Amino acid sequence: MKGLPAAALGSRPPHRREAPGRIAKAPLGERLQDAKTVTRIRLLIDLSGTVGSEAWDRLPHFGEVLGGWFSPEEGSSGPCQHDQESPHLPGEWCGAVIEVENHLLAEYAVAHYLVLPRVLDAFVDERGA
Ligand SMILES: [Zn+2]
Questions:
Q1: CA-based angle 60:62:63, to the nearest 5?
Q2: What is the CA radius of gyration of the chain?
Q3: β-bridge partners, 14
Q4: How far is CA 121 from the centre of its chain?
Q5: Which member of 4, 77, 111, 114 lies 3.0 to 4.6 Å from 8 by CB, making a disulfide possible if both were Cys?
Q6: Do 55 and 78 touch, CB atoms closer than 8 A?
Q7: Residues within 5 A (CB) of ion ligand 1
């Protein structure tokens, strides 16, 4: 008596079925579910020498972001001590949030942002969305 042919093992559902967030071409229902469980990345952006939201506007973003925003409500060095048309002073920074589909993408995104000169810090927000 022979055991099961090796090919029988291949008939099991692929491993990725158990991790819906990793499926690139998931059915619509699964994608919607993913959208409810986005993973957030927090960024601290160096504003010194830029005007207004220039540092954020020019940031080369990670390719698979779902969305994001830039706001002192996400943390900042404090209100500007200069007029709005003048460049930000050395040491000024502002927080931002980026949303991606899942934790794996978030780790790739953090690696992407950490090497950008304007990004002082980037980390996955473990509290979730
Ligand atoms: Zn400023």
A1: 110
A2: 21
A3: none
A4: 12
A5: 4
A6: no
A7: 80, 88, 92
Q: 57 alpha carbon to ligand 1 midpoint, in Å?
A: 15
Up-side HSE of residue 100: CA atoms within 13 Å toward CB? 22
**Distance of CA 105 from the midpoint of ligand 1 (Å):** 32
**Type of residue found at 26:** A
Q: Could you report the average pLDDT of every consecutive run of 10 residues in the chain (129 residues)? A: 48 45 45 67 98 96 94 96 96 97 95 97 82
Cα 40 to averaged position of ligand 1 atoms, centre (Å): 25
pLDDT of 18 reads 43
| pLDDT attached to residue 91 | 97
Q: What is the pTM of this model?
A: 0.70
Cα–Cα distance, 51 to 123 (Å, whole number): 25
Q: How far is the CA of 88 from the centre of ligand 1 (A)?
A: 4
**CATH number belonging to domain 38-125:** 3.30.70
Half-sphere exposure of residue 82: CA atoms within 13 angstroms, side-chain side: 14
